[in-house]
Amino acid sequence: MQRTYIKDLKDFIGETISISGWVDVRRDQGKMIFLDFRDMTGKVQGVILPNYTDTIEVGKTLRNEFAVKINGKVNKRPERNIKEGVLNGDIELEIQEIEVLASSAPLPFDISLSGYNLELTTELDNRALVLRQPKVQAIFKIEETVIDSFRDFMKQNNFFEFQAPSMVPATAEGGAEVFQIDYFGKKAYLSQSPQLYKQIVMSAFERCFSVNKVFRAEPSSTTRHLTEIVSLDAEMAFIDSWLDVRDLAENTVKHILKQVEVRNAEHLKLLEVELPVMIEKTPTLSLREVQQKIFDKFDRDVRGEKDTNAQDEREICEIIKEETGSDFVFIYGYPTRKKPFYIYPNPDEPEYNEGMDLICRGVEWLSGGRRINNYDQLQKHVELWNMDPSKVKMFLEAFKYGVPPEGGFAFGAERITMQLLGLKNIREACMFPRDMNRIDERLTDEGY
Ligand code: AMO
């Protein structure tokens, strides 16, 4: 008999069908056995009635996570047993035959607690098993929408998708957070960002984007940093100012929020999540304005600091939420020398740049801004930032030949998913998180 997916069973009331899936729960009740089954489309309850004597014997051998094929009749449930608002809450499968496709070892713990109620270390130590849980799957289905909708939006706006290299001769973002590799006896690195490549591709294709793995040798264990992330990058030429980049970032995030709301309504309900609010025009403040606001509201003086820290980000979000209702705020105008070499210094005030970050609910979501597009200025920055020009020759070369004003941005899929869902730890938004304490197996005894 052809397989029917569990979500479609309601269309087969009174008919005999076949489903394939896993035993989610078994409950013995007198002479009957109740079994919940799960496939990739949902769950359904089945019952083996005492007159199916052979089937009852098979039923007695079943445990959670046995993979089975079931033949049975779809019945309407008696009125008093209907579960409103639940998929298949009004039907029940009268089980006739059970074929065991694969048995399961006894489970090490109750996996139905996964997705919030287990220690994160337990979840990650048992990833393969925990991934079977609908709540955990809901997180990754939402992340899939984040990535898909980023891609859709870029394509709708004529951005060209390219694949950036993962092994690179020079570090784009500077700093010590880079994995060095032995490349046939020469030094190379795992890419921290497709930054230099997206700018090269932009110089030829005008608008480009990439969905790439990038690597950050983060030497500390925080709740919002991983060492391997999915970076969603965009870059575009012929901008009038950095505000065009801000608007593109804002519209991209709006599109993602809308798509998650529409495509993942069921998952959001399961996870009991309310999406952050993005108002018509996201408030946009310079770093100095942010610091002044924090001083005025909390009497905490961070004026003159070169960047925001976690507390500043929490506090400015609180202020902006109160003032405007927005969960998002753009911050721009960082000290030029504190940021990567490629960011465009404000011509009226060159010690501050036209780089920006988007902060939401106290955490950075995205970075970007206008870039230096003048060859001589770029070369000067490469020197000032103590970089080896021979290692970025291909990048510099692109700017010799007429590159218009341009800019772009990037964000991490895991960071966005974590923030969209209000997860406490970014590791919950990454199927196989890598950090200094774990690469599938634990490297240290530290928890999270
Ligand atoms: P930046 O280094 O700020 O900018 O990174 C961009 C975005 O990537 C995410 N992110 C991370 N997520 C999890 N763990 C990490 N260790 C981590 N590091 C970064 C965040 C962050 O906002 N080339 C520039 C972007 C640009 O200017 O276009 C860059 O990489 O969401």
From TrEMBL:
Alphabetical GO biological process terms: aspartyl-tRNA aminoacylation
Record-annotated Aminoacyl-transfer RNA synthetases class-II family profile domain positions: 140-433
Binding site residues for ATP: R216, A217, E218, R224, H225, L226, E364, G412, A413, E414, R415
Keywords, ordered alphabetically: Aminoacyl-tRNA synthetase, ATP-binding, Cytoplasm, Ligase, Nucleotide-binding, Protein biosynthesis
Subcellular location field: Cytoplasm
Primary localisation category: cytoplasm
A single MF term (Gene Ontology): ATP binding
Sites where the protein binds L-aspartate: E173, R216, S367, R371
EC identifiers of the protein: 6.1.1.12
Catalytic reaction list: tRNA(Asp) + L-aspartate + ATP = L-aspartyl-tRNA(Asp) + AMP + diphosphate
InterPro entries membership: Aa-tRNA-synt_II, aa-tRNA-synth_II, aa-tRNA-synth_II/BPL/LPL, Asp-tRNA_synthase_2, Asp/Asn-tRNA-synth_IIb, NA-bd_OB-fold, NA-bd_OB_tRNA
Chain segments carrying region Aspartate: 195-198
Pfam families: tRNA-synt_2, tRNA_anti-codon
Cellular component terms per the entry's GO annotation: aminoacyl-tRNA synthetase multienzyme complex; cytosol
Function: Catalyzes the attachment of L-aspartate to tRNA(Asp) in a two-step reaction: L-aspartate is first activated by ATP to form Asp-AMP and then transferred to the acceptor end of tRNA(Asp).
Self-association state and partner proteins as the record states: Homodimer.
Family the entry assigns: Belongs to the class-II aminoacyl-tRNA synthetase family. Type 2 subfamily.
HAMAP family: Asp_tRNA_synth_type2
Protein name: Aspartate--tRNA ligase
The organism of origin for this protein: Candidatus Nomurabacteria bacterium GW2011_GWE1_35_16
